[in-house]
TrEMBL record:
It comes from the Bacteria. It comes from Calidifontibacillus erzurumensis. This is Dehydratase. Residues 17-118 form the MaoC-like domain.
Length: 144
């Protein structure tokens, strides 16, 4: 997605990522890394007695995995600039396979060398259901 210089993007441009399956190991490793051991993510018996009836992936895990599904071209991308309007709209379960559907919604020149690309991100699972949404901003180089 982020493999072109600022001038090469157009508002309305769309892109679909590869997919990735969320595993139990992902939940355990994310819990260890983040320190978030909330039982909805880590306790099978606790989660069985919730509205979800099973463990769900951490929302922040899903956002983290989603960044790994994007393509960042060295020399084009300057930095991650931010994320807005983040919502977790449906649960992601162990065994769900997620992918991204994106659309460029804004292109803003920042200075003589860079600009900001804003994309709408829908994180979807294999059923077609959207599990999370956000607007991601990336600082991108202009053509040298």
């Amino acid at each position: 997605m982020f493999n072109k210089y600022l001038e090469d993007y157009e508002v309305g441009e769309r892109w679909i990522s590869n997919s990735r399956t969320i595993t139990e190991a992902d939940l355990v490793m994310f819990s260890a890394f983040s320190g978030d051991w909330f039982p909805l993510h880590t306790d099978k018996e606790y989660a069985a007695n919730t509205i979800y009836k099973q463990r769900i992936a951490h929302g922040m895990l899903i956002l983290s995995v989603s960044t790994g599904l994007l393509h960042f071209e060295k020399g084009v991308v300057v930095a991650f600039y931010g994320m807005e309007r983040v919502r977790f709209v449906k649960p992601t379960f162990i065994g769900d396979t997620i992918h991204l559907e994106t659309e460029v919604i804004d292109i803003l020149e920042k200075d003589e060398k860079t600009g900001i690309i804003t994309i709408k991100v829908d994180i979807k699972k294999q059923t077609g259901a959207t599990v999370a949404v956000n607007q991601m901003k990336m600082l991108i180089n202009k053509r040298p």
